Amino acid sequence: MDHLVSAADLRLHIERIVEHLEFRDSPRHRQLLRYLANHAIATGGRSVSPQAIEADVLARSAGGRGRAVTPARVLVDDVRRKLERYAVAAGRGDAIVISIPLDDCRLEATRNTPVEVAEHTPLPPGTPRPVVLVVEFDAEPAARSLTAPLAEAIGERLGRHGGISVILPVSRQDIADRGLAIEHAPAAWDADAGVHGMLMALPGEPGLEASLGASVRLINADAAVVWTLWCEEPMAGTGSDALDRMAEKIACFAADGVRVSRLQP
Q: Which end of the chain has the least Cβ crowding within 10 Å, N or C?
């Protein structure tokens, strides 16, 4: 596994892929992709033996009834082709590329090489209004309807903080259509920084409320991460209340990050 892709980023990206149409209707393919990702994280990207896959994935999915009917290499080839189709379509703008080498049972994760964008010219020293781009959040299916409202709320609250100009939320599809990775969107929109993240619905446990969670990043125009934030809000009452509280918290952190860091890598 590429050392530039953290375990947390890889797991988040795998969860995004398994919810795509290529994998949504195939529990076995989803299970194998997660298995290969966990093995890559645990071993630094070493290969898995077909025998291990048959024992750990195929036999278990068949209820432990002896040897798996489908050979491991056949299933790995199926997942490889699905990843290839995803990479050239829905995943063409992703910051991370997941692949499986031919004739191998090993998952590789690499950072995407973005297309060239116009060179960004920083605002002159002392300019009081840095420009921040808000990107519509990625999300799991249970929270997908909340991503656009959250991005809009963050942008609106950032504008209240003063000293910051906000570019209205840009969709991830708009970024992908330009052939860009999310990290390079600020430069393409001539912004000094960008706020983006992943939104999750966290179910309640005995004695605990359900909540919304967001993994958020502020990145500058050179694609350097200024800060990361984990934000969680209980969904007591209505989900919109939790969204408003989350947007305010993220906007405050973004505004502070812009002012304190001066957006330098």
A: C
CA–chain centroid gap for 137, Å, is 9
Query: What counts of helices (H) and strands (E) characterise the chain?
Result: 10, 8
Our measurement of the distance from residue 163's CA atom to the centroid of its chain's CA atoms, rounded to an integer in Å, reads 29
Q: How far is CA 141 from the centre of its chain?
A: 13
Spelled out in words, what is the top-level CATH class assigned to the domain 131-261?
alpha beta
What's the pTM value of the predicted model, to 2 decimals? 0.54
Terminal Cα distance for the chain, rounded? 25
CA–CA distance, 52 with 60 (Å, rounded to integer)? 11
Per residue in 55-69, pLDDT tens? 888 775 545 444 545
CA distance 58 to 55: 6
Q: Which amino acid is at 157?
A: R
Extract the tokens encoding 237: 């009452």
Name the one residue in this structure whose structure tokens are 């990107």. 135
